[in-house]
Amino acid sequence: MAGIALLAALLFYSLHLRQKENTNAFERTILTISAPVGGIVFRVNGFFAGIWDNYISLVDVRKENDRLRKSVKQLNAQVIQNNEAVLANERLQKLLDLRNALRVPSVAARVIGEDVTPWFRTVVIDRGSVDGVREGMPVVASAGVVGRVVRVASTSSRLLLLTDNASAIAATVQRSRARGVVKGKSGQLCSLEFSQRGEDVKVGDVIVTSGIGGVFPNALPLGEVTMVKKGEYGIFQTVELRPFVSMSRLEEVLVLLQ
């Protein structure tokens, strides 16, 4: 009731405001009462208007943040793809340089699978008989010898890695021309077998293919000698080497079609 009375008084005051030059006591009372109420109403209205404006602004900011986060994810993905393309281009360029240096028929292949167990160390490539690949063909990478082809399908092949226990490649010590046979060992190492105690082999020597046997061309890098041990008995010395090719990181290889 009080609110209705106040509203009626304000209406009456407004209607007669322009008809009088002087304000009487009643009008001054209404003005005194309504001024604080109007101020409160104005402030409350401003408060809720500010809340609404802030809400709209927050909604817009959230949408903008979501859009920016999506753009950042897309840019990061693009950067990763670009980096992968650059690295792949560098590897393929090295493989192309090797192909040109060897001057033998060859075909590039990509590693698409691996089978690393305590008994076998093999990988699968995406080239097969339709590409001219045959069993026994040597396989290399830009850093050196990888292994040889042991199984061939129409569009894929399996490679026996240099580090497999069944692998054996005729080799030569590049510095002293001492000969032996590089065989795979457990882990990522190989050994130079049948190296006589009197042969000049030292840690740091580079081991290359000798070309004997007709499978691998001569002078292909195999590995670096990491240990030489001469026993008190026997005619052979123990020689270990680390392959130049990291078999666990193979991605592209070159099959020599000879």
Largest sheet: 6 strands, antiparallel, barrel
Rg computed from alpha carbons, rounded to a whole number of angstroms: 42 Å
Number of helices: 2
Give the second-level CATH assignment, the architecture of the domain at 168-245: Beta Barrel
Helix share, percent: 25-40%
Classify the beta-strand content into a percent band: 25-35%
Structural class: alpha+beta
- Count the E strands: 12
| Secondary-structure element order, N to C | HHEEEEEEEEEEEE
User: What name goes with the CATH superfamily of the domain at 168-245?
Assistant: Rod shape-determining protein MreC, domain 2
CATH T-level topology of the domain at 168-245: Thrombin, subunit H
Question: Runs with pLDDT <50, length 5+?
Answer: none
Average pLDDT, rounded to a whole number, is: 80
Largest beta sheet: strand ordering: 1-2-5-4-3-12
> CATH top level of the domain at 168-245?
Mainly Beta
Broad shape:
elongated
